[in-house]
Amino acid sequence: MAVKVYKFEKANYGKLQNVVKQDHFARNGYTIREGKVLNADENAYYLYVSAPDEFFNQHEKEILDAGGVSIEGSEYELVKTAIEQESQNVASGIALFD
């Protein structure tokens, strides 16, 4: 599985929503977070996608055409880590109720 993170300007939020409402995104899973929640760019939304390489080969153009920009480096690490940690915290919290 590959993990990619895309940055969307707030003006493109509607386009982002139109992209992820498609069935192939729902089947692979994704997370959208506002930048200020992640201590990242406050004027952006981030789309986190964990999927097989084939998914990106077939559907990455949809993300880019909607205004998404693939991020790398320290911004990628910051956002990826924050989203994954949030997900782990939720899973740990749910385990407390089992």
Description:
- The protein is α+β, with helices and mostly antiparallel strands and 98 residues long.
- It has a single domain (2-95), classed as 2-Layer Sandwich (Alpha-Beta Plaits), CATH 3.30.70.
- 51% of the residues lie in helices and 23% in strands.
- The protein is built from 4 helices and 4 strands.
- It has helices spanning 13-20, 23-28, 53-65, 73-95; strands at residues 2-9, 30-34, 44-51, 69-70.
- The longest helix is centred in the C-terminal third of the chain and has 23 residues, at 73-95.
- The protein is globular, with a radius of gyration of 14 Å.
- The termini are far apart.
Jot down its keywords.
single chain; four-stranded antiparallel sheet; 4 helices; Alpha-Beta Plaits; alpha+beta; 98 residues
